[in-house]
Structures are given as structure tokens and as C-alpha cells.
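Model the whole thing, not chain by chain.
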Amino acid sequence: MATTTTSPPPQSQSQPSSPSFPFPREYFFPAFFTRQTNITIHHAQLTKWSALILAYARHHRLFRITISAAAESDLFFNRGIDRRLNPPDIREVLDFMRKDGRAEFLRPGEGNGAADASSSAAASGGDVVFLYWRKPEEWAALVEAFVEETAQKGSVLTVYELTEGENTRGTEFHGMDNQVLMKALNILVKRGKAQIFGSEDSLGVKFF
Amino acid sequence: MFLKHIDLTTALRPSYLPDEVLLFVQDNVGLYEGKFKLPNQQNGQVYLTSHRICYVDKDEPRKYSAALNLKEVDRYEFYAGFLKSSAKITIVPKPLKRSTLHNRVVSNTGVNSRGSTPSPAPSDNAYTPPSGPPSMTAATWVCTICSFSNPVPSNFDPTTANAHTPLPPCLACGIKPTLSQVLKAAISTASNRPAATTNTSQSGISSQEISSTAAPQSSDLLTFDTRTGGGQGKPDAGVSFHCPRCTFSNHPSLLSCEMCGAPLLSQNIPSSISSSEYIRTQSPGPVKDSNSKTSQGGTDFAESVKISFRGGGEKIFYERLKSAMTQRKWLLQDAPPAPKSNRAMDDSSPGSPSTPVQKTKTAGIAGLEQLGLNMRKNNEILIGSAFEDLEALMASAKEVVALAERFAQQVNGASGDVTSKDNSILAESAHQLGLITTKDIVGGGSSESLYFSELARNLAEFLTDDSRGVLKRAGGILTLVELWAMFNRARGGVELVSPMDFEKAAQMWEGLKLPVRLRKFRSGVMVVQARDRTDDATIKSILAWLQDLHEFPPDRDVAWDWREFGRGVTAQEAAERFGWSLGVAEEELLMAEEHGALCREEGLEGLKFWKNYIGSTDPALLQKKEAQEQADALIQRLKETGLIG
């Protein structure tokens, strides 16, 4: 995984800052942008789209996308061959990914992570999707490994420190989406490896 | 031998001679030769055409099918069936020696003419007709007092009758009729018959009348003898027709029963048991008779052939056979050309007097006009002479038909638009489709299924006929609806097949093992294609075509890499490429998509189909791949360790 990315602003999904993402072959195949009716082909299509989206998100370090905005991005709109995936089809692909645990719809009023439900409500309803090119469990493992490596067990770190701090520069979760990070931390909490305290703006985490 | 082996069409029907017309089909029949069953020809269909009687075996059609020519048929007899013995029609071939036959024919005829009387006659020569209603009582006079229909006495001759001729009183009230009344009745009955028979029956009357009751047979025979052998088909005036419903003996010229109104099939079918006494082979009593007859017959001419109708239909067969024998269509085959029918282009008519006059040499437009004028004149003469009298029409039937066909083609040619070609083809095929199956032709007695199977065969022939190439021209596949329209148009607007019947017939192809099959697409569209065309073959040809599109650049610039992906094709393009109809092309593409060979693209230009570059995630395939990879890795490792070379 390329780790040399300059930290992108977390909410700017549709503006890829890094140079050319190598699109797969199918991306240049016009029929790839039409929903297939044959079940077998359709399944293959969903799989390929899912792989493409995750690879694209990983490349550009996207943690969440807004469907309406992403539909205009070059992920779903190949301007070269003038073909695009329609929003309903995008939604279907994302739904397919959700079943696979690779995406999650962020809906207002749906208490996902209890801690940051309030902030998620601010995002446009139902339009925002988390893309888990790493699943929250995997993120949790990464954070845990980092804490272990840097011998910070027992110490208290702020969430800001984890994502934006100097110490985490060079790790994968540097510049990570806060909500996704909170999901990962909550997993650690459940396992009894961490404790979250503090107010909304200045959350602190203590690792055991 | 009387029975000859025949060729069958692809649909296992007899292949017909030119001008041959199918008259009747009946299934479930068996053949006898003489009194013996033919072991291999006991279950099949019998086709009565204008020229032949063909038997097509059900199990081994190519091996045991046979036919006999009607022109070799001397006479045929009807046996109505009795208890377990099914109805049969005996067909006796023409003898080699004419002289020995005459007596037999005559005697047979004599018996036949009297066949309606139910008397168990031990032998036909000793058989005397009962005095009841003699043969000439056909005429009836209606009593003015009680309106009872009285028979005209047998010895009443309208030509010699005068005021002193004794007339019997009315049977019901006893009042004597006037002479004019009886005379009128006798004459009107006589004139009601066809011209040919009127003469003979009248001569029959006179001879009958001269000979008294003691020996009517011989004189009667002589009478029939004079009008020669072919006359069996003509109605005998003496037969009164028994109503099948109420058994009332009707006047032969009536079409429906006088008592109950039931339709009367034929004036001539000896419907009662009496005829069975004569022909039957299986019951012990009369067998002797017929035995001796056939064995005697066997010595000097070929054995008779019997068709046993186990599934009914014998009466209609008999009637159609009768009319076919009367019409003698086979004579048309070598009919002489019509008088003065010398067309400029047709030099085949020899020795026509007026040819040299018209052969004057002219050139240019005037010449062409002259030519056209001559042709029209000839046509006029031909038509004129053809309609002069019925005899001439019969003789020139061939020419008139040819003329009509040419006119039809000229009309088609004149219209000159795109459809004219189709029309002419259709007209042509309609002509070739002379042997159409109609409900009417097929034996009604058995069931509808015979009609459907015949129709199915008929359709299969229509489809596979090379000269017409219906299926070939449509790219090997045709929707059922198109075929239906084409078939019905080819029938020329008569005897149209209903869509329901058509579908039922098409569904029988599979069972009848015909070379075409009915396929149903997932959308419910039904198509017709040759049996050997499978989905795989179709997909293969489509993919090959799409592969070609990688080589040839598209008509206009496209944004994608056409060398890599080719291009999408519409149903329209596929239809043009393979000669399919649009509906078929669409269905075939969808079928290929269904199989995973193609995928779709919906865009502004409509639905296009591409070769499937998206791939499939068939779990079985993936597993196979994985297993293969594992095996490869294993082999690799083994190689590394030097265990295998």
C-alpha cells in the first residue's frame, strides 16, 4: 500500500490529489457501465465495481463518499468513453459492498457508533457512505500495533493526536476520518483494550 | 407387383408427382394382399391422392411404405366391417388379359348394384334379387289424394307408355294416378341424373323391363358389359340408400334422409351388411366364396389389395376414391395440348397451322408490339377454345392453369416495388403447395391429432423444401408468427390455419422426429429452426462475428479502444448480419446473454450487445481455477526438489 500520500483534507473525496490512478481494463469497457441483467454477469460486474471502488478509495485515501458528488467524479464517470454509472446503480454496488462489510451507509438517526451519532447527523442524509478498504477491525489492529510499538500502553492520547499528530506521521491511520477511527477505537473499547473519555471536541483514549 | 415402393419427403410423407393432389389421409390402417395380411404394413397412414394410394408405415416409413397407381386400378369394393372385422376397401388391379376379366367384372357389378338388400347370399351367381324394390323404382310419384310417395312401377317405360298402360293404384289410399303424373315423375328423375348415366340407366330400364323376373341378372350384366369396365364409380340407379340413423330407404338422389333429415354420405356406399357377405375374408361362411374368387383371380392377374381401416374414415376414403377414379386426373399428365394453343415462345405444340403467319420477322418496338399482340391473341384463342365446352376445358386444363399462373406472375412483376419479389415467391410456393393438408382431407373419424400431425408434416416440408428455402432465407430461424403468416399466405387465402392449430401442429414436430424444431425463448417467443441448429452453434457464430469487429475499424470514431473490445451490436445489426428477422435477432442475442457470452450496454443509441469482458463469477469455475493453481504450485515445488523431471 502506498503510504507516501500527502495528507488530503478528509472531506474532499471527489478531488483526487494524487497522480493517476491505474484504472482496470473494465473501466474502459462501455458495457461495464450498464447494469447487467444476467445474474452471473451481474454478480461479476458488482464484484469488479466493488474492487475498483475500494482500490480507488485506497489510492486516494477516501474514507467516505457522497453518492451524488461521486457520481460526477471520474470513479463513476469515464469521460474518455462518455459512459457513467447511474446513481441507482452506484447505490446497488455500494449496497453489495455493504453486505460484504466493505461499506456502510451513514443515515441520520441510525445509531451506528453511539459516540459520534450526533456528528454523523450533520452529513447529508443517506447520501454518505463509508468505504472500508480496511474494515474497522483492521484499523483497530493497526492502532493497537502502533500503540504497542511506540510503547504508549497506559498513556493517554487524544484522538487528534492519533490522526494529525507528529508521532503518527507515516502510519496508515494518519489523516484518517474521525468517525471511522472512532468505530475502530470502539472495537478496542469493547475488547477492553482501551477506554474513551472526555468531551466531544477533545476526546481522549487510554490504552491498556 | 401391384404395390410399389415409394419415396418419402423429409417429413415422411409421400413425395408427389407433378399435378398430384392430396385428397384424403387416414391413419391407423393396415394392408392385405389377397386375403393375407402384409406383416410389415399393419399400422400406417394411407394417403389418397388424385393419382395414387400411398401407404406410409408408422414405424419403418422408409422401408415399408408403398403405393399403387390409380390408373392400374380396375375396380374397388367396399366392406363396411362386421363385428370385430374392421371396414375395408378392396382394390383390384387391372388384369393382364382383358377377356377373362369381363365376366367377373360384370358379375361383380351386378351384385354390387343390388348390394343394398340384406339377404345372405351364398354365392353371387345363384343370388337372385328380392322382388321388393327393384332397381328401377328410383322414380316416385306423389299421390294427389293422400300425398304418399309411390314408387313408379319397374316396368313402366316413359317412352312407350300410353293411356292403356296399366298403372298401379296408390299404395296408401288406392286411388289410381293419372298417366301424366307418373310420366312426369319418371322423366324428371331420369333427367336429374348426369347425362352420361341417364343413357345407361335408361337402357338399363329397357333391358330390365324386357327380361322378366326369372333371369334379370344376365341381361342386366350384359347391359353393364356394354358400358365397359371403368364404370363402377357411376351411381347405379337401383340402389336405395339406407339412412344411417333411422334405416329408412331413401331415394338415391337425396342428400339428406327423408324421414329424419340425417345427412346421407353417398348414394353408392353399400352400407348394410349385405356387402360384407361378399368381400369379407375372415368370417367362415362367405370366405369360401371370396376364396375361390381370389385364388381364381390369382392365376390370371395380380392379387387384390385391401386397405383395412381400423380407425374409421373408410366411408370418406371410399367416396374420395370414387371421385378420383371418375375424374381420372392422371390422364391429364399426358393430355394433348389444347387446340391452337401455339404461343410464340412455346414451340412444343407440334403441327399447328397458324404458326407460320405469326413468325413474320419484325424488329424494334414494332416487333415487340407485334410479339405482344400475337401473344395476347393466342391467349385469347386459348381461353376462348377452353371455355367453348366442358370437354375442351378438361383437355386444355393444363394450358389454362399455366396461363393463369403466368398472369399472376406478370401482375406481381408489374407492381415493381420491394415486395414484388416476395409476392412472386409466395405465389410460386402457393403453387408448389398444392398438397395442402386441410381438415377436410384428413379422416375426421379418428381424432384431431391426425390433422395436427399431418399439418406438422406439411409445415416441415414447407420449411425444408430446398426449392423454396423458407428457412434458409430466414437465416435458419423464423418466428412462429412469421411462419404462420407465410404459410397462410402461401395457401392463397383459402383453407387458412388458425393460430391455435398451427401452434399445436408445431409442437408435434418433436414427437414426429421431423427435421425442424420449435424453440421457445425465455420471453415466450416461439421460433422455428432446423433440428441441427443449437444454441451453442448460434453463440459461436455471434462471437465469431464480434471477434471480427476487433479487426475492422468501426464506421466512425469511437472513444473506446475498439481493437481491445470491438464494438457493441444492436439487434438490427445482428438481423442484417445473419439474415434473421428483428425479433429473432433480439431473442438470439438475449439467449447468448443468458448464456453469459454477451453483455449489454444501454445507452442513447439503444440496447447494444458486447462480448462479455466483465467475466463471470461462476463458483465452479473459480474452484476449478484454484485447484489448477494449487496443482501447478505443487508440481512446481516437486520440480524444485527434483522429485520429478
